[in-house]
Specification:
- The radius of gyration is 19 Å and the shape is globular.
- Helix 3 packs antiparallel against helix 7 and helix 5 (125-153) runs antiparallel to helix 6.
- The termini are far apart.
- By secondary structure, it is mainly alpha-helical.
- 76% of the residues lie in helices and 0% in strands.
């Protein structure tokens, strides 16, 4: 038995699994809804369902209140706080997708973790995977931002990527700082203290912890997005 990993009670496993299932159900509900009522920005048809995976019922309520494409004649102006939340969600979806791909790739193909430093740069595999996490999350987040900003401004590929990088580099980094900090706290301190070890990637507990880490990432990225939108660096959504 790998003593690095903890032993988790059935109630926690069940609660974690329920939270993950709720996130998936919310993602499916929103995915169906954006097909029926397409978003003005095509990229948001991906952003909203992905963000449900960590936001769950709270994010679902926010989507139906503010995120759905408005019907013709609805001229309400979106409040600044909601626009910032939507912009934060935008970079968060890229982070979430990057983390999903990175964690499962490194789990299924350990050589990937070795390529990113496990065993020769980092003694702990987690840190090597975090390098891949950040690269993928950053790259996907910038691509998402490109498809939001380029069509609105009519930019070329080069200019669009340049503006996307300027708009989202700080907010993605702020998100990852909050997420990594929370995962480190849970995996190195909280879970070992209460359950004798970490949660492995192929466990409900790991992804339940990741849901909370994503919410903290949202909180740390939100003020950065507010500043970027207020100063005109990032488009109001």
């Amino acid at each position: 038995m790998n003593t690095e990993f903890g032993t988790f009670p059935l109630w926690l496993t069940a609660f974690a699994a329920l939270s993950l299932v709720l996130g998936i159900v919310c993602a499916v509900v929103v995915a169906i809804d954006v097909i029926r009522r397409p978003q003005k920005m095509t990229v948001m048809a991906f952003v909203w369902p992905i963000s449900m995976l960590f936001g769950g019922l709270l994010w679902l309520a926010g989507y139906f209140r503010w995120g759905r494409t408005r019907r013709r004649g609805d001229e309400r102006r979106t409040p600044m706080a909601v626009s910032v939340a939507t912009g934060t969600n935008h970079c968060g979806a890229g982070c979430a997708l990057g983390d999903l791909v990175a964690e499962w790739t490194a789990f299924l193909l350990p050589a990937v973790a070795v390529a990113f430093g496990w065993g020769w740069l980092f003694q702990d595999k987690m840190f090597a995977v975090w390098v891949l996490d950040f690269i993928l999350a950053f790259g996907i987040g910038i691509i998402f931002q490109y498809f939001a900003i380029a069509p609105m401004r009519g930019l070329s590929l080069r200019e669009g990527l340049k503006e996307a990088l300027k708009a989202d580099a700080a907010s993605i980094s702020a998100w990852q700082i909050g997420m990594y900090g929370t995962m480190a706290l849970l995996q190195f301190l909280v879970l070992p203290a209460f359950f004798g070890g970490r949660a492995p990637v192929n466990s409900p507990e790991f992804w339940f912890a990741m849901q909370w880490a994503m919410l903290v990432g949202f909180a740390t990225s939100y003020p950065v997005n507010w500043l970027l939108i207020r100063t005109g660096v990032k488009e109001r959504m």
